[in-house]
Write a structure and sequence with these properties.
GO terms for molecular function: methyltransferase activity. This protein is α/β, with parallel strands linked by helices and 377 residues long. The protein is built from 10 helices and 14 strands.
């Protein structure tokens, strides 16, 4: 069994934890990380399925360290040979927060040296290691004098789904886009609209969720090259993603944007994801949005008006959006913005709001719940 950590953006820990539990693993939640135990299959599944996690790490050890000696000896005492083959390429990265050992470059060098010593002894080697084999990126993270040593099992971050051929100037991370959809009351039988679709990330993530397609189905992971996560395990995990996908689920998903170039990019990205026929994209301003459909869900990440000169334009657009969406009383509307006066420009207080971070920007997710459909007997 391995100690697995799914890292998470601030504010999304509960969502990541729910996803981990849905995969069948009991977990513990801390700031920015969700910890659980699992076998090699759990590593593959986590990489393939977790929509809102940043990356999957394998914990090698955790201990208190206030001196470089202590860091060296305790690192050397860990069973690195269980993870690293003799030809492993293993760079060490680091970070330090509120710790006596604050020089990150020194901590990295010491951890590297300690692992080399341990491996020399195990592999009975006197010289240097060639490091021309599988890739193991090791991280030493110090927080309040506790060192956590992990190996990254994802490679590029999990937000890199492999479908983004093009993007705009302020793209939303795919992991956050998935979270925005999962925080709504949308289900695949309801219409879904993103009136500020940009490069199409939110509608694409909604379609993946709607058909239960694993977000990692279209990419590779660094742990596919590790001897202790065997190829047949990856084959099994990928077969599961095929079996669980519901490609026959009809979807009604639309993305609109004011910029025709973004609409074109969004269409290309949707085709790259294999969802081109499922999502309608069109050029449109939010103030022109009308629909006869009922009980739909609108999710938007509009411009925030952070730059000077954009502010008034954005405030006007929020007001126009409020006016356009006001008649749609059966629709639920979810808007992410850092603009703290959003409700007054939109013209209505939110049913609920939730604090989220878009990159380093603190935002609120304003939620307006529509009327519930009548109960069918």
């Amino acid at each position: 069994m391995f100690d697995i950590i799914a890292t998470s953006a601030m504010g999304l820990e509960a969502l990541v934890a729910k996803e981990v539990r849905d995969l069948g693993y009991e977990c513990e939640v801390e700031n920015g990380r969700i910890s659980y135990k699992g076998d090699a299959l759990a590593i593959a599944r986590s990489n393939l399925w977790l929509r809102t996690a940043d990356r999957i790490r394998i914990k090698v050890g955790e201990f208190k360290a206030t001196t470089f000696d202590e860091l060296f000896e305790k690192t050397k005492a860990l069973p690195w040979e269980n993870f690293l083959p003799e030809d492993a390429e293993f760079p060490v990265t680091g970070k330090s927060v509120k710790s006596q050992l604050f020089s990150v470059s020194d901590c990295q060098a010491i951890v590297k040296k300690a692992i080399v010593e341990r491996m020399r002894k195990h592999y009975k080697k006197t010289g240097w290691f060639d490091e021309n084999g599988p890739f193991f990126k090791i991280e030493v993270a110090l927080h309040k004098d506790v060192a956590l040593l992990t190996i990254d099992a994802s490679g590029s971050g999990l937000h890199k789904r492999g479908y983004r051929a093009g993007q705009g100037e302020a793209p939303l991370k795919e992991t956050l886009a998935a979270a925005l959809v999962m925080l709504t009351n949308w289900s695949p039988d309801k219409p879904f609209v993103d009136p500020f679709c940009g490069s199409g990330t939110i509608p694409i993530e909604a379609a993946l969720i709607g058909q239960n397609i694993a977000p990692g189905f279209n990419r590779e992971f660094v742990s596919e090259g590790w001897h202790w996560v065997p190829e047949k395990v990856w084959e099994q995990a990928r077969m599961e993603t095929e079996d669980l996908a519901n490609y026959d689920q009809p979807l009604d998903i639309t993305g609109t944007d004011i910029d025709h170039r973004m609409v074109k990019i969004a269409e290309e990205n949707a085709f790259e994801a294999g969802l081109g026929d499922l999502i309608q994209f069109k050029q449109m301003q939010v103030r022109d949005f009308t629909t006869m459909k009922e009980y739909g869900v609108i999710v938007g990440n509009p411009p925030y008006g952070e730059r000077l000169g954009d502010k008034e334009e954005v405030q006007k657009m929020y007001a126009e959006m409020g006016a356009a969406l006001a008649p749609l009383d059966t629709w639920s509307v979810y808007i992410l913005t850092s603009n703290e006066q959003f409700e007054q420009f939109y013209g209505k207080p939110a049913t609920k709001k939730r604090k989220l971070f878009n990159g380093f920007i603190r935002t609120d997710y304003y939620q307006y719940w529509g009327k519930r459909p009548p109960r069918t007997k």
